[in-house]
Every structure is written in structure tokens, then in C-alpha cells.
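Changelog-linked ticket: zinc ion example.
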Amino acid sequence: MRPVTTSELLTIWEREMNQPLIQKTLILLCQACPEMESNDVAKLSIGDRDVRLFQLRQWMFGSILKNIADCPACTERIEWETSIKDLRLPPVHNHEPAKEFDLEVDEFNIRFRLPNSIDISSVIANNVRQPDPRMLLITCILEARCNQDMYEINDLPDKVLKALDRRIEELDPQADIRMKINCPNCNHQWDARFDIASYLWTEINSWTKRILRDVCILARTFGWSEQDILKMNSTRRHLYLEMVNL
Ligand SMILES: [Zn+2]
């Protein structure tokens, strides 16, 4: 895995801006993981995918995440910062093979794998209004047996799916990053889910506007080409921008 250059990021943003979030996130990751086939990137578990997205975010914009949430009790807007280091994420492992797991629930025996980006995309595509979590679990079951006999996956009772849901959460904890929030106004406490994919794309969209504005100013002032300006590191670019403003 490697950082994505300014020019590559701008090209991906331009080409994929109208793609769904999951698709453009995978394209971004493929650019950062040239050692992996694109199909293998799509088959990373959501937790493994998100560990890579956090690494990419750290390379792009640093390790401090700025968060905003509205308190569900008193509607106060709360802003706080979290460091990616505090999330205690495991290191990125290259060439991670897709794993299979077993689960026993009473007389049932399930062979399954962890949900990946392809599963989430297909569940969203089939349930445009409200993604069905049961569908996602069923997609991840490779084989179901009841008292050693093959069992129809779609007919599995809820207790099995609930146990499977819990097991998947234990096996892929990075897929569900939560932050504890304490409202300074009313003291209400709650857990908020942190979605690195949508967070990162919101940042990329604002970054693009800034970088294009910088290119415009520097090209107009010094006559440099867009490619030459994008090749500069951000420190040097900012120093030139400061000189323009003198
Ligand atoms: Zn509050």
C-alpha cells in the first residue's frame, strides 16, 4: 500500500464523482494498493477495508479527525477531535486472504465469511429504500447444516442469524467504529458510528475545491502549468501562495 499523489486523487475525484460511495472508495483503494487485484480489494472485509482507508486518510490529511454531531437529547451542536492513533487500529496486512469461519448454534452449523464491499453494494442495490441487515447476513453464509444435513439458507431461524451477526461483529470489530460522545450542555451520553468512507469523501470534495483554487492563483500569477503545480508538495505550494498574498 502507498499514498495516492495529488494528481491521482484529483483524477479519481473528477472521473468518479457521480459513482456511488462504495464504488469510488474501492477505486481509490485500488490506486493505493497496486499490489492487490481490484477484485481482492472489493473482497476485503469491511473492517480490513476501513483500516486501509484510515491509513490513506492519515497520509492525505493527517491523523486528527474533526467531528460534528447534534445531541439527540437537547440538539446542541458538538464539535470534537479524535486522533486516528486513539482508535487503536491493527496494522495493514498485505495479501490478506478472504477467510472462512464456522459457527455452531444448537443443532445448526454455519460456514460463513465476513461481509465485504460487494455484499454491501448488492444489498443496497436490491433494497434501495432500506437495506435489509438479514439479507447481508444471508449473503455471507456459504453453507448451512442442521443435524449434519444441508439446510436451506433462506429458511434459517432468526436465532441463528442473530448469533451470526454477533460473531461477525467480534471477528471484524473495525467494521463498526464507534465514538463515545458526552454532551457538555445536558450531559447526555451516546455512541455514534464513524463511517470513514463517507468522512473521507466529504474531505476530498472540499480539498478539491481548495487545490483547484490554489492552481488557479499560481497559474495566473506565475504562468505554471496545472501538472507542475500539482507535482509540488503542499508545503512548497503554500509558501508560493503566501508570496502571492504579500
Ligand atoms: Zn445535549
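Closing comment: Example verified and attached. The beta strands are 64-70, 77-83, 100-105, 108-113, 141-146, 149-150, 178-182, 189-193. The mean pLDDT is 91.
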